[in-house]
Amino acid sequence: MDGPVRRTIRIEGPLDLRATLRPLHGLVADDGWWMTAHTPMGPASLRITRTREDVVGDAWGEGGRWMLDGLGSIAGLEDDPASFETDHPLLADLHRCNPGWRFGKTSQVFPALIHAICGQKVTGQQAMAAVRGLRQRFGAPAPGPRGIRLSADARQMASAPYWVYHELHLEKRRADVLRRVAASAPEIDALAGVDTGTAAARLEAIPGVGVWTVAKTLSVSHGDPDQVEVGDFHLKHVVVHHLTGRPRGSDDEMLELLEPFRPHRGRVTRLLHTLGHEPSFGPRLAPKDFTRI
């Protein structure tokens, strides 16, 4: 397929497309939001834009039509923010001020898991550098005019020696987990077709994949608005601070505070993040240069 194939979907209800797509690991460019994928039909690139009334998808590559079949779910049109109702004054006000924030769903479990593993116990800047490095080392050029690359090829990742990952600033612990999940990529991608509870149990059975990594993955691949990043460096403090006024908290306290908001706990944490971090004191997570280890 040389030229793009287009699909247009009418928007029902409020939609903040930028806020919805931002967590999905795509590329924000001056001509739209871009995503690439290895689909069952072949490689593809997808560009999403919007008009006043419609979401517009343009796709390139053998898997382009497959990508367009999921345009509505990626853009969050299958999520219903109005289903979240609360009488909590702070959250009700935040929700009212952000009616178009939706959870998009990529249906791409393996790439979402790779992003999450790269983010384990490092800064966000280090995580994104690792993801870019994996794409450059293991990803081929994507179809279409943008000049971006496909996500990392699983077979190449699984067979690569550790020193390749070391050059990408990935220490042995994360490199081993990445190679482990890459060896099971088809089974992991098949989890897109099961519910989040089943997917979470199967992912957590993989050594090196814990609850934080699973939550980061399923909020993207399944668009699940109830995923909570237990073990996150900041989240427990953000939630406890904004819901109680105390400057610090624990994961157990966070989960207790969020329990009344099921099945929208992840939606609540995204809303609370708009208020900023907890009060700053003590050391923050410092970047590490793993190539010196």
Describe the fold and architecture.
α5 crosses α12 (211-221) and α11 (196-204) runs antiparallel to α12. A hairpin with a 3-residue loop joins β4 (42-50) and β5 (54-60). The chain is globular and about 50 Å long. It starts with a strand and ends in a 20-residue tail after the last helix. A 5-stranded antiparallel beta sheet has the order 1-5-4-3-2. It folds into 3 domains: 5-81, TATA-Binding Protein (2-Layer Sandwich); 109-221, Orthogonal Bundle (Endonuclease III, domain 1), CATH 1.10.340.30; 228-293, no CATH class. It is α+β, with helices and mostly antiparallel strands and 293 residues long. It is built from 15 helices and 5 strands. The chain has helices at residues 17-21, 64-69, 71-74, 89-97, 109-118, 124-138, 154-159, 162-167, 172-182, 185-189, 196-204, 211-221, 235-244, 251-258, 265-273, and strands at residues 5-10, 27-29, 32-39, 42-50, 54-60.
Main structural class: alpha+beta
Question: What is the CATH topology assignment of the largest domain?
Answer: Endonuclease III, domain 1
Beta-strand level of the residues, as a percent range? Answer: 5-15%
Tell me how many strands there are.
Answer: 5
Distance between the termini: 46 Å
Shape: globular
> What percentage of residues falls in helices of 4 or more residues?
40-55%
> Overall mean pLDDT score?
94
SS summary, helix count: 15
How many structural units, i.e. domains? 3
Second CATH tier, the architecture of the largest domain: Orthogonal Bundle
Radius of gyration: 19 Å
Record the strand order, biggest sheet.
Answer: 1-5-4-3-2
> What order do the helices and strands follow?
EHEEEEHHHHHHHHHHHHHH
What is the H level of CATH, i.e. the homologous superfamily of the largest domain? Hypothetical protein, domain 2
Unreliable sequence segments: none
